[in-house]
Recover the amino acids of this structure.
């Protein structure tokens, strides 16, 4: 891969982390609603993580399918790297079971 493709892949991996974080906020807030940790309130409630999720999705789509991007190649590389990571983590997961 050339430098530009590596940068694109790193941006997509970071975006996936942001997506999982914004998707987890409402779930985690719902679980801690009755505990003392529920004292923290988001200014816009669940709208703020939802807006973050949509914004990251739009930015990733623009990066993947923009004019100067080869989105199919990026998705192929991303999928291959995720599959490789899952295969590497599989033995550790199976040992815990």
């Amino acid at each position: 891969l050339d430098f530009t493709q590596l940068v694109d892949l790193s941006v997509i991996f970071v975006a996936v982390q942001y997506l999982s974080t914004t998707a987890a906020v409402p779930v985690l807030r719902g679980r801690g609603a009755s505990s003392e940790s529920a004292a923290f309130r988001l200014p816009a409630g669940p709208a703020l993580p939802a807006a973050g999720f949509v914004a990251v999705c739009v930015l990733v789509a623009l990066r993947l399918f923009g004019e100067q991007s080869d989105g199919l190649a990026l998705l192929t590389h991303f999928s291959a790297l995720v599959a490789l990571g899952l295969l590497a983590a599989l033995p550790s997961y199976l040992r815990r079971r």
Q: What stands out?
A: Helices lie at 3-31, 47-65, 71-96. The mean pLDDT is 79. DSSP finds three helices and no strands in the chain.
